[in-house]
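Our preliminary data section would be incomplete without showing what the modeling component actually yields. Below, a chain of 100 amino acids is followed by its predicted structure, encoded as tokens that our downstream tools consume directly.
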Amino acid sequence: MAGGNDRLPPAAPADDDAVDIADLGFEAALARLEAVVQRLERGELSLEESLSSYEQGVRLVAAARGKLEGLQGRLEELLADGTTRKLEKKPTEPAAGARS
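Predicted structure:
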């Protein structure tokens, strides 16, 4: 575009395209969520980029919650009988309004 506003907002990175969010560990999902929140709080994204970032944040929250619940289940099992064993992964319900 000629003239006008020469400052373009940064594009929201598609981190979840490079690495499947479901494969992230709890800490990695939380770190990415913090980055998404920072991008949104800066207010420099277009409406479309903001919506995309928000959707990514919702997926990251669901992934982190699922990891945390799995870890909590393992901890409860450890505390209950003093031993650990590999737990079967329970399917997690997607967050309301989130799409895979």
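The chain is about 55% helix and 0% strand. Residues 17-81 form a domain with the Helix Hairpins fold (CATH 1.10.287). Preliminary results of this kind motivate Aim 1 of the renewal.
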